[in-house]
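Hi everyone, sorry if this is the wrong subforum. Our group has a chain we'd like a structural model of before ordering constructs, and none of us has done structure prediction before. Sequence below.
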Amino acid sequence: MKSLIRSFAAILVVALGCLYLTSWLNSSQGYSGANTLTIYNWGDYIDPELLEEFQKETGITVIYQTFDSNEAMMTKIQQGGTTYDVAMPSEYAIDKMKQEGLLLPIDHAKLPNLKHIDERFLDLRFDPGNGYSVPYFWGTVGIVYNPELVPDGLVFDSWDDLWDPRLGNGLMLVDGAREVIGFGLNSLGYSLNDTNEAHLQEALAKLQKLTPNVKAIVGDEIKMLLANEEATAGVVWSGDAAEIMDENDKLDYVIPKEGSNVWFDNMVIPRTARNLDGAYRFMDFMLEPEHAARNAEYVGYSTPNKDAVPLLPEEIRSDERFYPPPQLTSRLEVYDNLGKRMLSHYNELFLEFKMHRK
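Answer:
Right subforum, don't worry. Here is the predicted structure as tokens:
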């Protein structure tokens, strides 16, 4: 028995020693909560040089992880396996995360650079008073097209132009239920947040008539395919449009007259955050106008930072396709949080549309 006890004690000492050593190594390498910041963001959605500058300026080591959908991001945060300090969800996801208690409230006193955000992008319906989120980027959903490939007279100033039979299998769509069902609703004069079942079925029936023109429904590869002129037109987010047009200056981008989606990605602090001080320092760092301008120029999406806009190159800040005037933005809608049941229904309708193509 004494021998057994001595063996157990020896094992315990070794285990504790290993635990201490692991903790020390992690701390020295920047993996403790105090000197590490774990950021959860969309892919290719920040200028990496800014991350390097933040680390040099603060001494905080950044661990940067990415997600490809709001749903995947929310699931990961709900599970709590990784303690993210800052995340960048979209507006409807923020509303849902608030309801589910996944976010910590924002202390505005710790963000002096919040004063640089354009008032148009504050106090929005998904987060009144910006109690839980700070604007990061914004943009629209519209149509990228190649004027050299489209039939005469087709300028895509209306969603209905997508149904022109002369397109003939020349259209690509982003693989997103809210985007596709949304423009189907908009084309009929309905809100892209419509939950009226008759309107949704009407939109589905109209979208099914679009299938002869749809060459593909794809993810990130839509940027490469459109830039390489693999299709005549595509429904995309404005930041993707900017990237596509940077690769191929023949292309143009338009927001149809019936209206469309205006979306917002905001910085939030998940409830599992360990480095609150680092989270605030990072958010305020990104709100600095010079940093926001550099980030916008790198990523291609529109900055909500009013004092960063004048720092952008003139050809960017004066481009109304990506910085549209108020008379156009007034026709745009933010995605509402439709609730789990209705969001599932949108996904079912979208799947039915995709299956109809086959």
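For your construct planning: The chain has a mean pLDDT of 90. The domain at 35-137+265-318 is CATH 3.40.190.10 (D-Maltodextrin-Binding Protein; domain 2).
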